[in-house]
Amino acid sequence: MTSQVFSVDAPGLPDLPAAAPAFSPLYQQIKGLILQSLQTGEWKPGEGIPSEMDLAARYRVSQGTVRKAIDELANDNLLIRRQGKGTFVATHAEQQVQYRFLKLLPDEGDPKSEGPAQRKIIDCKRLRANADIGRALALRTGDAVLQVRRVLSFAGAPTILEDLWLPGNPFKGLTAERLSDYDGPMYALFETEFGVRMVRAEERIKAVVPDAAQCKLLEIKSHTPLLSVERIAYTYNDTPMELRRGFYVTDTHHYHNALN
Amino acid sequence: MTSQVFSVDAPGLPDLPAAAPAFSPLYQQIKGLILQSLQTGEWKPGEGIPSEMDLAARYRVSQGTVRKAIDELANDNLLIRRQGKGTFVATHAEQQVQYRFLKLLPDEGDPKSEGPAQRKIIDCKRLRANADIGRALALRTGDAVLQVRRVLSFAGAPTILEDLWLPGNPFKGLTAERLSDYDGPMYALFETEFGVRMVRAEERIKAVVPDAAQCKLLEIKSHTPLLSVERIAYTYNDTPMELRRGFYVTDTHHYHNALN
DNA sequence: CAGTGGTCTAGACCACACT
DNA sequence: GTGTGGTCTAGACCACTGC
User: Fold this and answer.
1) Which chain A residues touch B231 with a CB distance below 8 Å?
2) CB-CB neighbours of B33 under 10 Å
3) Which nucleotides of C are covered by protein (CB under 7 A)?
4) Gap from B238 CA to chain A (nearest CA, Å)
């Protein structure tokens, strides 16, 4: 099979001096096309995508090329392969990878034995983005944003205080009630209710002293230091969709990170 | 090619009821063999390993199978592929990935513009492992360990205080002078001088209040909270080889983490 | 059983580095 | 040019799932 989705080097044009070669392997182009179908919602979270054979026929490449594209997407947690069943669009709702982005673990004991956190929405309101929040979410200052504050408790002990900001437009209709009623990861709700899938995130961690309001909500003394975890979460295309500032009490828990 | 390195299912034995199938693909077996050659030092850090063709001949499998094994090892940062040149054993001494395990970055500006940290060895002595340290390093309580304390400064400001413990045996002959004189990542010194290559690590992060000694060494007020970063670093075979407790000042720096 | 992903092979050609 | 890793193909067979 010699056909290609895009021609790699523009034929007919003489080689320009400044032009970078920009060689892109076929499987990368296929990866891009699959990514597009994910973005546009042709295949929705949890659904299966066509078989490798079907995709190979669709893009007119060999199965091996499709396979390599899917391999990379599965590695990025955008797709999940299930032998004998097919390839599926990844979801935040799956048992195995629930709370993929939450790295706080109990110092001892199995995280599962601790059970799910109790969640309490403290506040949920609409407001206008200030400069900081606008920058983080790639909005203009003054654009509508949704602000949520909540507390997570483990075994009755308040452990995480989170403030989060969402762009107002994609999350029209999100209310405190909606958040409270939903049983499962917040990012799973975002997927099913608003079609926003968080794909990756970056966190900046510092040690800070709590203010009075934080002390009260977390039921700690003012000299107890907190882990400040500032997260920006992105959808497809590196579009920021959430700014989250978490404050973690780390006397019986720790932030876990694996380095490779 | 139908030959295999190991037979997958023991022939001649009737299928036992409790036996798990334990099917292992060929390329995984090849991966194991390459790993063995890395452990035994047949190929040393920085050196090139045989070409894919040579390895295919050696293990009597196809090049594609060797390729898949190497792909995974390269993904784990154990090998580095260089097109046109060959495949090399990864090192901590390379420009691109220096300080692979140090996730502290300046809040603003390019980390490179900050330049390398100034390092100062505070202390370096031999002692016997207590229970905690013995457990972390898989030693017996009372075994010889080396303890090092040092401070790293950025732009003259002390920012990181580290205590680290190493098993005495593999690191015989390591002295404060040796550490001070060496110009480069500590893990690079461990490779070249002691043949110990750190392959992965795990970190537990908490927010803590500093004690008096820490305040003095880091030149901070006693109410400044610190990020406590406890790391266990592993060589091949998941053998723990270093326990490190870092205390980071996070007023102008932050711990950065990417979530996928 | 058919259909899916997973493994393995063999061969062709491309991109890159060195000499 | 030669040798390396990188891409692409085509076909065979294996392992797993569900009908």
Assistant:
1) 259
2) 16
3) 3-11, 15-18
4) 12
| B227 touching chain A per CB within 8 A | yes
What b/e sequence results for B125-158 when a residue is b if at least 16 CB atoms lie within 10 Å of its CB, and e otherwise? eeeebeeebbebbebeeeeebbbbbbbbebeeeb
Cβ contact B181:B155 at 8 Å? no
Q: Between the CA of residue A123 and those of A48, A177, A179, A218, what are the distances in Å? A: 37, 10, 11, 15
Task: Tell if the CB–CB gap between B257 and A223 is shorter than 8 Å.
Answer: no
Residues of chain A with CATH 3.40.1410.10: 96-255
Strands across the sheet containing B48-49: B48-49, B86-89, B79-82
Q: What is the DSSP string of B49-101?
A: EPPHHHHHHHHTS-HHHHHHHHHHHHHTTSEEEETTTEEEE--TT-STTTTTT
User: Looking at residues A11-30, what average pLDDT do you find?
Assistant: 65
Among chain B residues, the shortest Cα distance to A73 is held by: B260
> Taking a C-beta distance cutoff of 8 angstroms, is the pair B21, B9 a contact?
yes
The residue written with tokens 């958040």 in the block is: A179
pLDDT in tens, A48-105: 999 999 999 999 999 999 999 999 999 999 999 999 999 999 999 986 677 899 999 9
Classify domain B26-89 by CATH architecture: Orthogonal Bundle (1.10)
| Token duo for residue B76 | 């784990």
Kindly determine whether the C-beta of residue A47 is less than 7 Å away from any atom of nucleic acid strand C. Answer: no
Cβ pair B179, B189 in contact under 8 A: yes
Query: CA–C1' distance B63–C12 (Å)?
Result: 14
Q: CB–CB of A243/A176 below 8 Å?
A: no
Contact A254, A104 (CB under 8 A): yes
Listed in order, the ranges of chain B carrying CATH 1.10.10.10 are 26-89
Name the region of B109 (left: φ>0; alpha: ψ -120 to 50; beta: rest): left
Interchain contact B255–A (C-beta under 8 A): yes
State the nucleotide closest to A23 in CA–C1' terms.
C15
* Chain centroid offset of residue B207 CA: 24
| Contact criterion met (CB < 8 Å) for A202 and B101 | no
- Sole residue written with tokens 């592993």: B234
B86 strand D contact, CB < 7 Å: yes
pTM for the predicted model, two decimal places: 0.90
Query: How many residues make up chain A in this entry?
Result: 260
Instruction: Specify the fold of A96-255.
Output: Chorismate lyase (3.40.1410)
Task: Give the CA-to-C1' distance from A11 to D7 in angstroms.
Answer: 20
Question: In this structure, which amino acid lies at residue B13?
Answer: L
Q: In what order do the strands lie in the sheet containing A253-259?
A: A104-106, A253-259, B200-208, B226-234, B240-248, B157-167, B144-154, B118-128
Residue A84: Cβ within 10 Å count: 4
B204: chain A residues, CB-CB within 8 Å = 107, 254-256
B37 and B66 Cβ atoms separated by less than 8 Å: no
Report the percentage of chain A scoring pLDDT > 70: 90
